[in-house]
Amino acid sequence: MQQEVFFEDLGNRKYKEVWTYQESLLSENSAIKASYRNQNEIPVHDWPTKNHLLFVEHPPVYTLGKNGNAANVLLTTAFMEANGIDYFHINRGGDITFHGPEQLVGYPILDLEKFKTDLGWYLRSLEEVIILTLAHYGIAAGRSAGETGVWLDPDNKKLARKICAMGIKCSRWITMHGFALNVNTDLSYFNNIVPCGIPDKQVTSLQKELGREVPMQEVKDLVKQNFEQIFGATLKDSFLKA
Question: Least C-beta-crowded within 10 Å: which of 95, 124, 165, 212?
Fold first, then answer.
């Protein structure tokens, strides 16, 4: 069944603001599911939950997953505050990562009971969206065994480098958080952390791999197109505004 997903491009927004917005969308869907849970005569696919896909660029911010190791943050809080860098310990999986300008961050808030109730499938599907997007630029991307995200040369210990980080939360089969694709991102920010808690692998970007800047809107359009294909979804512009 083709699923309707409401799309919003939020532009450049502070991390906390968008985190709060995601939580509100998840809470709305959770409340709907709680109210319908005992109504067995109504199929799950007919419950009025709403799927969303948010795009955003954040000002510089480091986020640490709920089970992440704070030792992977190589800067003091005082230094980050003095240099206008935000830092949050948040409720997604994964370890430490960076978000900043010219990085495409995508937050799907999906009711997986309308897709497939399998987190492994969900993460592999998100990865496939990015893999197809990179293929448009002639970049052969793939997966690294046991490590979520999208990688280049994942099987070569000397060359392996991550181009897209992923971390999610799922409650009542409703997702939040998502992926961060480095497009023209300033990669020097990653020198201040152990990215994703993996000490021996590098981070890269589309700009670094291609040797040129890449239009953000072009990348957004490709990701949207591939998201529709992989998830069997139709994206519709949302009238909601965070």
Answer: 212
